[in-house]
Amino acid sequence: MLFHLSVKDNGSHMIGSCDEGCPTTGVPTCLVCGYRTDPDYTNPAFKLRRKSFDISCCYDGTIIVSDRFRALYQSLGGSNMRFDRLPAAPGFYHLKCNRPLLLDYLAMSTERGRSCIGCRRHLDVFGYSHVVLDARAHLPDEELAFSDLYFGSNNEASPLMVCGEALAETLRCAGLSGIDSYNPVEQPRSAG
Length: 192
Hints:
Blueprint: E1 2-7, E2 55-57, E3 63-66, H1 67-75, E4 81-85, E5 92-97, E6 111-115, E7 122-126, E8 144-153, E9 158-164, H2 165-174, E10 179-184
Antiparallel strand pairs: 1-9, 1-10, 2-3, 3-5, 4-5, 6-7, 7-8, 8-9
């Protein structure tokens, strides 16, 4: 069984604002739409406002985790996530995904709007009542993955997080803070 993790916001911005990237952060932006072109960009001067959560999301979509989260994930042998240190927030990391998970966006009724001719991305990705795994996707029990699409608009887009049952149970038992809910992910229907 897989679970969609919903997490709390930490009151921070990785790139300065949801509407536009602050030039002093160094975030690469599209010359046409003005929005960030690298969703994994780490601002070296990032300051975390709420340090009480083991996992949380910035207003502009960046997932931040504590050293405690990193240690638990790695203790299970998880290898799909990278942890970029945050120099201005010792003990916390910018969480990044090596291999995003393909979801069934048609079954989820996800919509994509406003395409940018410059960066070729949809500036709006929205809509789902439940998360549905694509038939070609697989995620081991101890793993965590981001969706291959980021949901939201403009610089607010963030990934959906999906984890395996063993990781979900470990996080629950450890009482990690910042997780609002563990919602079951719908498995693909078999053809026939």
